[in-house]
Specification:
Elements (H helix, E strand, L loop, with lengths): L1 H26 L26 H9 L30 H4 L2 H10 L33 H11 L5
Helix pairs in contact: 2-5, 4-5
């Protein structure tokens, strides 16, 4: 099962990187990783000082070619028939984690758990089996990370 999930995530990461590259090209941030400081288990400050938009974040979270949160997580408001159960349910995530903790998990959850199967959405170094066309590009840019953080911060139930 773990091998199947790893293959699904590798395929998803490649798809996400492709989609993310288009969004980054329009924002002028292609391949750029935002600076951040990790404090404990969180990145407290928004990446690049950006403000997230929950509506855009919701769209990204459900988009199978971009954030694709539902490939691994049950997410409130989505079709339960096509949501994964490999990751924890995101219902009530905002009561369990603050925005900085959510941001840390999206940027690079391996800093908290080296064995996690969640892809690092805003890291380009130290990755293996990355296609040449995706090398040096994060899956999600800083604005997309902040948008998803804003959406997940609304999930209190």
């Amino acid at each position: 099962m773990r091998a199947v999930v790893a293959t699904m995530l590798a395929t998803t990461a490649a798809t996400l990187a492709t989609s993310g590259a288009h969004a980054q090209a329009t924002t002028g941030t292609a391949g750029r990783i935002a600076g951040f400081t990790i404090t404990g288990d969180a990145i407290k400050a928004p990446l690049d000082g950006l403000r997230g938009d929950a509506a855009r974040g919701r769209t990204l979270a459900f988009d199978p070619e971009r954030g694709n949160c539902t490939i691994c997580h049950p997410v409130p408001g989505g079709d339960a028939r096509v949501q994964g159960t490999v990751g924890p349910p995101l219902a009530g995530v905002a009561t369990r984690l603050d925005e900085g903790q959510i941001r840390m998990r999206l940027v690079d959850g391996t800093k908290l758990n080296p064995e996690t199967i969640m892809p690092p959405y805003h890291r380009i170094e130290g990755l293996s089996r990355v296609g040449r066309e995706f090398a040096g590009k994060p899956i999600l840019d800083a604005q997309q990370i902040e948008d998803i953080v804003a959406f997940l911060a609304t999930l209190r139930q």
